[in-house]
Amino acid sequence: MALAPCFSDNRRMTPRFFCPFPLSAGATVQLPAETAHHAVNVLKVGAGDTAILFDGQGGQWRATLAIHGKPPKAALMATLDAFDAQDNESPLDITLVQALPAGDKMDWVVQKAVELGVTRIQPVMAKRSVVKLSGERAERRVAHWRSIAIAACEQSGRNRLPDVAPILELPRYLSQSVEQPTLRLICAPGATTGLREMAKPAQSVTLFIGPESGFDEGELLAASSAGFQPIHLGPRVLRTETAGLAALAAIMALWGDL
Q1: Integer Cα distance of 241 and 100 in angstroms
Q2: 168-198 tens-digit pLDDT
C-alpha cells in the first residue's frame, strides 16, 4: 500500500524584533546594529519584507523593512504600518526568586521562565550558592540575562519585557519582600503541601527556589518569618534549574493561562 506523502510547512514565520526606544504610528526607525546584523545576515530578511516590532511597553507594530547599504554592515530601516494591542501576557503576576545556580544554568532558567510568562525574575545569592557575584561582574551578568529575556520575548510572542532585577544577597531580599502583598511560596524539603491543594490566590505569586545544595536552616527560618509557605513538587528531587520551571508551569496551568 502506498504511503501518503508527508509535507512540512516551510513558510517562514514573520520575524519579531525588540526596539529599545518608543515606537509611534507612521514612524520610520533604524533598528539597532546588532538586530540589523542578525536580521540581514542570519534571518536573511530583504527589502519589502514584513516584521513585527515591539518596544516592551505593550502591543506590537507591523512594519515594512528597507535595507540601506550592503551586508555585513547594512542598515535596517522599518516603517511602522499598523498597531496591534495584543500582549500575550499571563493573567497571573508571578515573580521567580532564583538562588544563583552554577555555570550557565541561570541562562536556561531566565529563557524558559520568560517563555512560561513570568512577570519578573529576582536573582539572589544564598549561603550555599556556588556562584558569588558583585560589582561590575554582577552588573554584566544581569545585563546578559536581560538580553536573554528580550530574545525569549521575541521568540515567544510576548510584547512586555519581564523585569530581571539586580542580584541581591538573600537576607537583603527577604527584608525588602515583606512589604509586598503577594502569595509567597518556597520549595522546601519536608513540605507537606502541594500546589494542587492550594486555592487560587487573589493576589500575585512569588516563588522562591534555592541553590543546588538547598537553603540552610537559618535561611528557611528567615523565609518563613517573611511569610513564605513551604511547598513540595512531588516525590522526586528536582534540580534547581528544573524546580523553578516545573513549579512555574504547574502554577500557570492551575491559576494562569496554560
Answers
A1: 10
A2: 999 999 998 776 789 999 999 889 999 999 9
Residue 187 phi, psi dihedral angles, 5° rounding: -75, 120
Q: So what's the pLDDT on residue 2? A: 43
Q: Tell me the residue ranges of DSSP E strands in the chain.
A: 16-18, 28-30, 50-54, 60-68, 75-84, 94-99, 120-125, 163-164, 168-169, 183-187, 205-209, 229-231
pLDDT tens per residue, range 11-36: 468 999 999 999 999 999 999 999 99
The four Cα atoms 46, 52, 57, 59 give a dihedral, to 10 degrees, of 160
Rounded Cα distance between 164 and 151, Å, is 13
Number of other CB atoms surrounding residue 75 within 10 Å: 13
Among 98, 104, 185, 113, residue whose Cα is nearest residue 144: 104
CA nearest neighbour of 148 among 118, 185, 128, 186: 118
Burial of 62 (0-12, 13-18, 19+ CB in 10 A): middle
Q: Which residues of the chain have pLDDT under 50?
A: 1-11
Measured at the CA of 90, the angle between CA 152 and CA 9, to 5 degrees, comes to: 55
Residue 252 dihedral angles phi and psi, to the nearest 5°? -65, -35
pLDDT confidence of residue 117? 96
pLDDT at 12: 60
Instruction: Return the HEC string of 167-190.
Output: CEEHHHHHHHHCCCCCEEEEECCC
